[in-house]
Amino acid sequence: MQQYSRLSSDNPGIQLGDVAPHPRPSLSDSDDSDDVIVYRDNLEDEPFAEKDRRFNDEGRMEDGEGYSVESRRLRPARKSRRVLAVLVGIIALAALVGVLAGWGYSAPSYAGKGGNKHITMDHIFNGTFSVDTISIDWVKEAADGTYSVIDSDHNILLKTVHNDTEPRILVEATKVVDDHGDPIHWSAWSLSADMEYVLFQTDFKKQWRHSSHANYYLHRLSDSSTFPVLDPTIPPIITKCIWSPVGHSLAYVSANDLYVIPGNELARGAEAIRITDDGSEVIFNGVPDWVYEEEVVEADFTTWWSPDGNTIAYLRMDEAEVKNYRLQFYNPSDDAFEPHPYTTDLDMKYPKPGTPNPLVTVHTFSLEEYLASRVASRAKQQVTWPGSFEVDNRIISEVNWVSDNGLLIKEVDRAARVGNVVLFKVGERDGTVVRKLGKEGEEGDDGWIDHGQNVRPLKGFGTEGYVDIVPNKGYNHLALFSPLDSSVPVWLTDGEWEVTSIAGVDAAKNLVYFVGANPSIDRHVYSTTLPAADAVDNHEPAFSAMTNTAAPGYFDVSFSPRAGYYLLSYRGPDVPYQRLIEASEGGVDELVQSNDRLNATLSEFMRPLISRTTIESDGYTLNMLEILPPGLDTSGRKRYPVLIKVYGGPGSQTVSNRFERDWHAYLACEKKYVIIVVDGRGTGYKGRALRNPVMDNLGHWEVVDQVKAAAELTKRTYIDSSRVGIWGWSYGGYMALKTLEADSGVFTLGMAVAPVTNWLYYDSVYTERYMSTPQQNPDGYVTSAVNNVTAFGKVDFLWAHGSGDDNVHYANTASFIDKLTQKHVRGWRFRMFTDSNHNINNRESYRELHEWMTAFLEEKWGRGGTVRHG
User: 199-211 pLDDT, tens per residue?
Assistant: First the structure.
């Protein structure tokens, strides 16, 4: 038996990468990421810089099988880039106009000029319909608009957007060698702020979703000398290295202790300052434990340099009381035929609802003070503030430097109902609560406090301040807080739509760029001008669209560090493209990715008909996506099965104007099934009034909406009411089970993959945010569990789970099987995928799962479009 921990030098332990090679996915989503063209790790402390996509390939959220889902938290890691392909677009189908009437707002349906070739499962899984994308790795240390390129010889080159000259070489690969003269095969790199050193990552070993261990080398550009941060070890023990934002001081975490090497002492064999000395298997300094990595910071570090490089803030986490969860792996190899007589067991600290969470405190270390006194105790301080929650009843949800000496901290209670925003000034004894969160604070209702890393300091402006995303009359909007201790937001945006992210800040032009869901299934890029210091009190929200809001569109954007340039990525509803644009009017505007290959491919194949509309449920307007068979006969002469694809997690979004083609397109085109997606109550980007009803009652109102949608669909003359099914993965699997459990008589078939069956089995931070603790909401935990198992004997039912799922534990399925057995419910089908994690993608399992589900649908339903008799 081996115990999981972040590796210590004495006990390296077992790493997840040794037994389950895939990053851990989660129940839900977030931002979009692209396929890799350049690699550069975000090793410096820049929370808003692009992440290295080689090691942070979550991208947009998927619910496990590759279907795009967006959410403020849940984000399953996406599958192989080749599998995730794409479609959605196309001319209105006149025959559907009458059918769709009365369903609420209907966005245009699109149907390009498809061909006659049939889609096969091979096409879905071999990348035939994949979208080609590029990513630009902006180099913030150089002039604005500078980005890196890795050439075929692995040299690192720097190129500038507006400069057509040859790229200049930053690092020659042949000069990056170890003490023996052997080349160092690096996997990621990072440049110091003064551009004097490059940090190289080697021997990369994946841990969880974001975290890893690696060895690191420093390469001095002036003389091309290269030396290790620490003597390399196998397995490696460094979990994070972070450059200071000025100069070239380096902080790093090894064996869960935090160290720093001052810039003027950075050299071969330099003795680092040891900031902490209590790191262990259960004490984490400067890096998150499992649950904070997954559910809170969504990153692999909890160390933050102040803008002037004089102070380091960090979190200390004590998970000694967090209970262990044991995972068993039967075969750590990629070969299913390789025998392993004994299991490999992995213990991980996994807090579940109502059980102890890690105890988290905030600390600072003044490098300036230490260098003056050389007394560590004088340089360290634990940050406290009057009115803080007890350490066992709080989550430190966000930490951000908003000035050289101003640290902003957000805390919420375990149930995410009340919270504080604290401003701490370096050198002062305590912090001060400057904003209140929750019902009596900014949210103003009984819902949960949204989590996120949204605070953006305003550097270079005439006054100190920051921008944040804050509820404004029930919708998330952009707010300015200035001065730093202001408790009253100055609204930069308003209206019945939501800001989803802050994309960039241009200090020279006094502009903030952001992305908004306006309407909710779109994403558009906007800019807003910050008010002058003497005009703050009278400021009225005003903003300008930078994308065409008159047409449906789903955009994301990557701004250069000083926001002078941006890569604009159009994601749908038509075939995606990308443009590289200079923010100044009349500047560079270049098409850098057109996806001509995909356009040509789509013209050869049959294409489903896509419609985005809305339906009503109990007075709520819900977004709906329809993927319909080509040549759909709406006369009623032919009948079609309908399969509802569900996700539905709190704050998530499945219906959008993204361009998608995946397994569902295959089912629509080749099996003639009608595919429906409805974002019910609890889902995101339509305001808190739609999200809040599911509070403390998961699995109820979401199910009501799915049942009502299905019942309404069966009124269509071309829908076969005897063939109505629902399926989902992760939270969607839970939704499928709860919908079948409701025994509405509407559904005749269901499929679930990796489902939650009882929220007592999921992690505490996520679950308690929406369900409170079991002590606070005992009845809610009972009703939200899947208990009425007799209903599953009345439908055709299939489900699957990976035995190595460290996210939604296999215990969910084991318990569910036990209930079915005790109630003598038979006729269902189940398949365990050995050692697979939440994505079910090792040893050919991902495609096999879809082939198995397809065969089940064919067996129970046959093909759609059958002629109606009688």
Answer: 999 999 998 889 9
Residue-wise pLDDT for 840-868, tens only, equals 988 999 999 999 999 999 999 999 988 76
Per the listing, tokens 């449920």 go with 617
What's the rounded mean pLDDT across residues 577-589? Answer: 92
Residue 727 · residue 751 · CB < 8 Å:
yes
Q: Does the model's pTM come out above 0.85?
A: yes
- Of 210, 801, 809, 838, catalytic: 838
* Catalytic status, residue 730: yes
Question: Is 824 considered catalytic here?
Answer: no
Q: CA 175, 181, 186 angle in degrees (round to 5)? A: 60
The secondary element (H helix, E strand) that includes residue 720 is: strand 719-729
Give the rounded percent of residues in the chain with a pLDDT score beyond 90. 79
Question: Phi, psi (5° rounding) for residue 651?
Answer: 75, 5
pLDDT of residue 115: 87
What is the spatial distance between Cα 76 and Cα 377, in angstroms, rounded to a whole number? 42
Catalytic residue among 730, 764, 772, 845: 730
Token pair of 754 as six digits: 């990796």
Alpha-carbon dihedral of residues 422, 423, 424, 426, nearest 10 degrees?
160
Give the integer Cα–Cα distance in Å for 613 and 552.
12
Contact 466, 450 (CB under 8 A): no
Tokens of residue 776, six digits: 């606070």
More confident residue, 358 or 21: 358
Name the CATH code of domain 94-132+600-861 (choices 3.90.190.20, 3.40.50.1820, 1.10.287.690, 3.40.640.10). 3.40.50.1820
> Helix, strand, coil proportions of the chain in percent (round to 5)?
15, 30, 50
Q: What is the pLDDT, as a whole number, of residue 533?
A: 75
Please state, for a pLDDT cut of 70, what percent of the chain lies above it. 87
Which residue out of 805, 809, 836, 845 is catalytically annotated? 805
What is the structure's pLDDT at 460? 73
> Among 230, 314, 192, which Cα is nearest to 7's?
230
Residue 98: predicted pLDDT:
35
3-class secondary structure, 702: helix
Is 838 catalytic? The answer is yes
Residue among 598, 709, 790 at smallest CA distance from 129: 598
Query: Does residue 8 surpass a pLDDT of 60?
Result: no
Q: How many CB atoms lie within 10 A of CB 828?
A: 17
Integer Rg of the chain from CA = 27
CA distance 466 to 502: 11
Residue 38: the pLDDT is 30
Name the 3-class secondary structure at 206.
strand
